[in-house]
Amino acid sequence: MLLRIGLLTLIGALLSGPLDNAWHEAFGRDSVLWSPPHMLGIVGSLGLAYIMLLHLSTTPQHHRVLGAATAGLVVAAAAFSVAEYETDVPQFAPVWYPIVLAFAATVALRLITNTTTARWAATNAAAVQSVFVAVTGALLLGLGYDAPWFSLMLAPGLAIDLGVRRRWGYARCAGAITLAVVLVVMPLREIAGGVGLTASDIGPAAAGVYVTSLLALWLADGAPRRRGGLLTAATALALLLPGAAYAHDPGQGNPAGTVAWRAQTTRQDVTATVRADALCGRTPARLVARRGGRLIRGSDLRGDCRRTGRLNLDRAGRWFLYLEIDAPDGRIESWVPVTAGTSRTSAQPLRYAYYPRTPGRASTIKLGAGLLLYSLVAAFLVLLARAARALQPTTSAKPA
């Protein structure tokens, strides 16, 4: 059974690359981490690590250190689903960060507690993942990249372990997870380098965390087969809830020359001077800023080959500042990252420009394709949960 499920998760992980390319070809720009092909790859990676953990749990001589490292990999794969928020490149509204983190953490950590009778299994796995984050973050920061300083999975892990030890029902366990996320995760995230959460987000975030935690607990415990279809559909629909994002485009298009950029941020304002051959002849152009579901579009820039524009950025953090040029042969884009809330000047004399991919086709087709792939994601998680229940039916106490 483990071999079959392992092969399925491996196939899913390997297919995510070609499917992602096909997705871009069919629907245009969609570079967000939560796009269906990306999530298939994340769940495939999580599944491979979890199959390894299940195999280790059934060996006569269980390797404690290897098992702990593998459990940490399961948590790390799940935590990657919120990597865009934790590296200050959010593509959706801030309120979705705690909701998705709670779902991912609950699924991964609850799966782990279902493989062992050891105490504090979820907390220990989250601690190992914290070490991964610290080491990886130090390496990335040393190379000049942004990286999260620490993991926030420990608080949900402790809540799940308490639920297992005290044999809480789903409602009480989801309540504990909600308290951990709202009272610990959200404040620490804002202290460490916020995603833009405000007091008005607390209510919607708490409600969303509670509902998704209930769903995740049910899924991770392997729902009864007669409810499996409903569970898969509910999970797929939940994953689709954030809707469309004003996705940052990393430049997936044909080359269109270069743009000379000079961008200066002063508190919440950014002033940019751009120069490009494509601007010559008074070609219409404008500045556009994107961050976390927000899109701020400026008026047309005046001038010829060299132009200057200004935008007011209403949230602190990293924004992606675009130059859009309405060239005769199609839209041309170029972008630079800027950080609102700081006083900084950056210059890039040869920033690449490109023709962005065309907008997506009919939303109905895209919605159907996304629902199909998200259903596969949910089905993989159900398979993992049932594999754990079949191999270790009495290893941990399930909520009533």
Architecture overview:
Helix content is 52%, strand content 19%. By secondary structure, the chain is an alpha+beta fold. The protein folds into 2 domains: 2-247 and 362-391, no CATH class; 253-356, Immunoglobulins (Immunoglobulin-like). The strands form 2 sheets. Strands 5-2-1-8 form a 4-stranded antiparallel β-sheet, with no helix packed on it. Strands 4-3-6-7 form a 4-stranded antiparallel β-sheet, with no helix packed on it. Strand 1 (253-266) and strand 2 form a beta hairpin. Helix 5 crosses helix 6, helix 5 crosses helix 7 and helix 5 packs parallel to helix 9. The longest helix has 29 residues, at 363-391. The model is unreliable at 393-397 (pLDDT under 50).
Radius of gyration: 23 Å
How many DSSP E strands?
Answer: 8
Number of alpha- plus pi-helical segments: 11
Number of domains: 2
Features:
11 helices; single chain; 52% helix; 400 residues; Immunoglobulin-like; alpha+beta
SSE topology:
Layout: H1 2-27, H2 36-58, H3 64-79, H4 83-86, H5 96-113, H6 121-142, H7 154-165, H8 170-193, H9 202-220, H10 228-240, E1 253-266, E2 269-275, E3 285-291, E4 294-300, E5 306-312, E6 317-327, E7 330-340, E8 344-356, H11 363-391
Antiparallel strand pairs: 1-2, 1-8, 2-5, 3-4, 3-6, 6-7
Quick overview of this protein structure:
52% of the residues lie in helices and 19% in strands. By secondary structure, it is α+β, with helices and mostly antiparallel strands. The protein folds into 2 domains: 2-247 and 362-391, no CATH class; 253-356, Immunoglobulin-like (Sandwich), CATH 2.60.40.10.
